[in-house]
Specification:
Length: 308
Amino acid sequence: MGRPVKDIELDGSPVRLFAFWLRDLRGTADLTLQQLAHRTGYGRTTVSDAMGGVTFPSRRVTLAVVEACEGDLKRWAEFWGQVRRALDGGTAADLTPPPWDGPSAPPDGGSVCPPGCARVEPHGYYTESVETRLRLDTPAPEAVERRVVVSTCDQLARIPLAFSVPRHTDDGRAEHGLHVSVVQGGRLRGSEHPYESYFRQELALGAPVPAGTRHTYVLRLRIPSEQPMAPHFVHIPLTRSERFRLYVRFDPARPPRAVWRLDGVPTAVIYQRVPGTPALSVPPDATVAADFTGMKVGYGYGLRWEDA
């Protein structure tokens, strides 16, 4: 039996970001490392290292893996070049990682934008604002998230949705879940759970959105009532995202011992018991707010707390 595959923490490193999406591509293709090695002609260790997030794979190995997984060779070659330039002294903010055309396997095989669509942004849209209101004074944690996106393609038809729900250190349950529903702005299609803490769906819009037009959608996110929530909520942009506003309503009867603001931190800092970032005071109504702009791709923005 092979060794268990460790999750990749997105900490702002271009190499880890590249490995995260290359591993996602392999997961979509449903290939074992042995099958991938056979298809590429490279050794199992070589293809495993390409997705390990420690070293940056060569262009030749990358494209062999992408071809074996039936990925977009042209887009992956461009992404590889962006990462190479970032490692040579460029900026990670210029990276445009997948999904370039929405979720890797949408229910009907379609893409975010129609074929031949002229796009300004590589993803067909960018996020103008995110406002999240998280309730921790309810029987189960519940977040309502309002997002405003701006279409940059001719007829934006769908938006990929991805959620990371890390397991609490005290959670020994076998099941690990997330329930997503739409309050406004579209309907959900498909449901994928490729990794224990990673959930993926797609929002189909009621009508195509022309380029330059805003579209607002609202989601309700809930975890099962018996499932403890990890003590943080962060937004990690993987594409252009201009503003994030977060409100966390704690239980006034059991306020947290401490709350820290996370403003553009590597993913590893999010999981530190005391992250070493500015601490915030908790007002009498137990609601803590944080506002972020100028966010960078791959870094975390939000709040971490220590439970009572």
